[in-house]
Design goal:
The protein has 352 residues and is an alpha+beta fold. The chain has helices spanning 3-23, 28-64, 71-96, 117-137, 167-171, 258-288, 324-328, 333-351, and strands spanning 107-113, 141-149, 155-163, 176-182, 193-203, 217-222, 238-243, 249-252, 301-306, 311-314, 319-321.
């Protein structure tokens, strides 16, 4: 028996043990843990059952092929099963891959202009809107934490919390530098300008994930002013928090309440510290296997939006789509599906 088959046997046996425990003496926290684990295993166990049934049916069909009267029927069955079994095996292998613990979490999205002045700020606003539309199309909740506009339709900084099923798993590949090539409205001679915007997608952290000592924080309050918020407040409602150990600084002024701004700032600080911890952990793994979809480094140029040619190109997987209008309206699934598949292929290769 192969190692893969033995692994499947162990999974099926463990599911049986969990069922026995749930119908037997388990109670309290042990019952809750076993229920959760079994719920996660059930889809995989069902797939294993389908695979085993298909393998048994294939063996029976091959035995029938020796019978002249049954040969035609058997060969049709063999052809169907010979295609089904590899597909089921691939599904199971993908389900067995180590999962990113953060995949099921909500995400914090940060969008900022980089190089390109006003044109970069305008594109930052467009990208922020693109992600908002993508979230709405998937039924996710998109809550703006901070939106600092330039007063000219551009965006200085946009931060949002996105809640829903599998948010981080879908959006984590969006972190990096997004480049735009287009003719600005202010360009009288029709010259194409190139600008860049940085996007960061952070898994939302719970309080238990990151221990923050109040003594490690410097908290400043000040008046919200200028185009940085949706209002100008006469009270000191804006909050800036500096985490002294890491040097991370977060600021919030979107709300009129200092208490609400502080709560949002702490949420963002926690997410950035959690992301920093994850990056440190993943750095050791990256030394052994560089992910084919890129490092996730914010400094890495990941995608180009070329408006004159109507195309969007993802440089990590060499995928170009000629539907820039639809992409800007939030049609991102083709890119995200391809990036996910590439990442899974790399993980499968590493597991082999």
């Amino acid at each position: 028996m192969s190692g893969f088959a033995q692994k499947l046997d162990r999974i099926v046996d463990h599911a049986e043990e969990l069922r026995a425990g749930l119908s037997g003496g388990l109670s309290g926290e042990a019952f809750v843990r076993a229920s959760k684990e079994l719920a996660e295993l059930e889809p995989l166990v069902a797939r294993v059952g389908e695979l085993r049934a298909a393998e048994q049916a294939l063996a029976e069909a091959e035995a029938l092929r020796a019978d002249p009267e049954m040969r035609e029927l058997a060969e049709g069955e063999i052809a169907s099963l010979s295609a089904r079994i590899p597909a089921l095996t691939q599904e199971i292998r993908l389900a067995l891959l180590p999962r990113d613990a953060a995949d099921a979490r909500a995400a914090i999205l940060e969008v900022r202009p980089a190089a390109g002045g006003d044109e970069a700020a305008l594109f930052a606003a467009a990208l922020f809107g693109m992600y908002q539309r993508y979230a709405e199309a998937r039924g996710w909740r998109f809550e703006i934490l901070e939106y600092a506009d330039t007063g000219l339709g551009g965006l200085k900084e946009g931060i949002a919390e996105i809640n829903g099923r599998g948010v981080f798993a879908r959006l984590k590949y969006e972190s990096g530098v997004h480049r735009v090539q287009r003719v600005p409205e202010t360009e009288s001679q029709g010259r194409i300008h190139t600008s860049t915007v940085t996007v960061a997608v952070l898994p939302e952290a719970e309080e238990v994930d990151v221990a923050i000592d109040e003594g490690d924080l410097r908290i400043d309050v000040y008046r919200a002013s200028g185009a940085g918020g949706q209002h100008v407040n006469k009270t000191e409602s804006a909050v800036r928090i500096t985490h002294l150990l890491s040097g991370i600084v977060v600021a919030m002024q979107e709300e009129r309440s200092q208490h609400k701004n502080r709560a949002k700032a702490m949420k963002l600080l926690r997410a950035r510290l959690y992301d920093q911890q994850r990056a440190s952990l993943h750095a050791t793994r990256a030394a052994d296997r560089r992910a084919q979809v890129g490092t996730g480094d914010r400094s890495e140029r990941i995608r180009t939006y070329n408006f004159p040619q109507g195309r969007v190109s993802d440089h990590r997987i060499n995928l170009t789509l000629y539907k820039i209008d639809r992409v800007m309206q939030g049609d991102l699934d083709e890119f995200i599906d391809a990036l996910t598949a590439e990442d899974q292929a790399a993980l499968l290769a590493a597991e082999a």
